[in-house]
Amino acid sequence: MQTIDNFNFAGKKAFVRVDFNVPLDENFNVTDDTRIRGALPTLKKVLADGGALIIASHMGRPKKNPDEKFSLKHIQAYVGEKLGVELKFAPDCAKAAEAAAALQPGEALLLENLRFYEEETGKPRVADDATDEEKKAAKAACKESQKEFTKTLASYADVYVNDAFGTAHRAHASTALIADYFDTDSKMFGYLMNKEVTAVDNVMSNIKRPFTAIMGGSKVSSKIDIIENLLGKVDNLIIGGGMTFTFIKAMGGEIGASLCEDDKLDLARNLMKKAEENGVKLLLGVDARTGDKFAADAEMEIVDADKIPAGHLGLDIGPKAEAEFAAVIKESKTILWNGPAGVFEFDRYAEGSKAIGFAIADATQNNGAFSLVGGGDSVACVNKYGLADKVSYVSTGGGALLEAIEGKTLPGIAAIKG
Question: Which of 232, 311, 376, 386 is flagged as catalytic?
Answer without folding.
Answer: 376
